[in-house]
Predict the 3D structure of the following.
Amino acid sequence: MGKICIQSDKGELRLRKSKRLVGLRMNPSSRSLVAPDYVQQEIHPNMSGFQLVELETGEGTIEDKLDQVRQNEEVEVGTHVYFPEGSERPLIPTGELFLTFEPGVSEEEQQIVIDEFQLELVERRSEDQIVVKVTARSKNPIRVAQLAQESCLVKLAQPDFDTLLDDYDFNLPADQLLAHQWYLQNNGFVPDAQARLARGADAKVVAAWKRLGSLGANTVTVALIDNGFDLSHPDLQGKVFRPFDLWSNSPSLNQGDPRYTHGTPCASIAIASSNGKGMVGVAPNARFMPVSGTSFSSRVTEQMFAYCVANGADIISCSWGTTDPSYRLDSIKEQAIARAVREGRGGKGCVVLYAVGNDSKNYVNFYAAHPDVIAVGASTSEDRFASYSNQGMEVTICAPSNGEWPLLAARAAWDGGNPNEQGEYRYWVDGRSRGANYKHFGGTSGATPLVAGICALMLSANPNLSAREVKEILIQTADKIGSPSEYIAGHSRKYGYGRVNAERAVAEALRRKSTGAGLPSTPSTPTSPVSTPAGSGNAGAGGTASPSGNLFEVNLQQVPKTGWGVQVGAFSSYDSVLSLVNQYKSKFGQPVFVHVSTANGKSLYKIIVGSFPTTQQAAAFQAQMQRNGVSGFVKNFADL
């Protein structure tokens, strides 16, 4: 079959059509537990509403067979499935497209394009971007994208796709009861196990509980986006808060499917109840928001993060993703994550964590590479690098997981364990059972919710911490493990900034609370915002405003627009700017500038830190800021 080329905002995407796989959206009134006879094998039950199935084509072609299947009453929509060049991971077009128009194209002109391709408007994003979907009269979304891209009015026509994502657990699962949970406090041994551990090779969680004086607050909500949550498990029941299933678009989660068990152990490591039996999570008092139904679709990605933000998630833990180069994140997914980090928790930001992946690669899961997330790698019970854990400059932190001895985690009632083993070996690496509700677990899948639980303890200690501050504290308080030679400017491609230390992280959260850091505050020294001629841009969330009625000294001084700095934000609240200016001046010892512009009657404040004669010097300073947990980009003052 010939190659198909379409454009994306990350470049050209070359596709080939599958010869056996198709996507079927079944009529809800005709759904049956028994697969139709034309389906040879179901590959995945729900990819943006489509079942991914294999058809037996016989002597015919996939086109002929799909046309035949489409005639069945129970089939609402049938679509071809594609593979990106160099990948064997199937791709399903969801039927929606993101159309970005050239600057200055009016709504009337945009409607011409919608009508020409017989599309339906789903959502208007901005003056130049809309979401549309194909109709019964349209060509298929791939062909629509190709044709629309040729229009002089259209800058980019990007079909929405869904694909299969990886669950980042380890092949041999891992799990054990409190005395067995060495990752909370490692005393050098595990009861009833012939395992040698390195004393102290843990996340210091027990010490953090003692420092906090509790097991955390019940006002903190940890969302886990995954599949296979056993809500009746004794360590999870009674904790569930606002669950949601993305595949069914309902609060009723799919349970009992033996293919999906991953969410249960991940959730237990973060938030399993302290109920006097079984295991205990890192933050056992936290509320549990299960969001079921992972998806690569840009629209569903937006939906999952928007749901977490709208329903009060403080922390979002994701132990899944992909390292397939054909599936790098597009800007729509990147923006969905960024909005959660920026807008969640009333503007303080949701803390978002992603596993770096278990592929032994020199780069991380593309979701974990997002600059706003906490990218979690894995260390072992010997305080060594877990060889399966992906490496890269984006790794933020590592946390204990398997590699020498596994973690203890909850087991879904329908979990069949490792199919390659017999008896208790299906669940336990040494064949010794620690209870029917538990199993061994590991991978970066286990390390990530462990850190999510620590973040919940930090927010219990200081609920006013921003998402950026939580990441910054984790970086500052981590323990350096491994060889010192592996760290450059404090960062290792294997360990990130080190192995997470819950006690030190909670202590720093408490210290910032006692000193007012992380709380709405006023600057302690005068600031010097600089006014320059009006520019343009959109305001971002600006943090928490200072209390009304405060009096500040402001020195207004115009400066030449020459050189380069690092822009760290754009804000609509001047009170927020004053607090941040003081913070950045104190933290980095560089001049801080504020560019003020007005558009549509609203003021926009851009903060630029530092002034350098060359872009190279500014880039070096940007890297220093990034290492200290502050994201930004190099800005030419002449562009303001």
User: Anything to note?
Assistant: The radius of gyration is 26 Å.
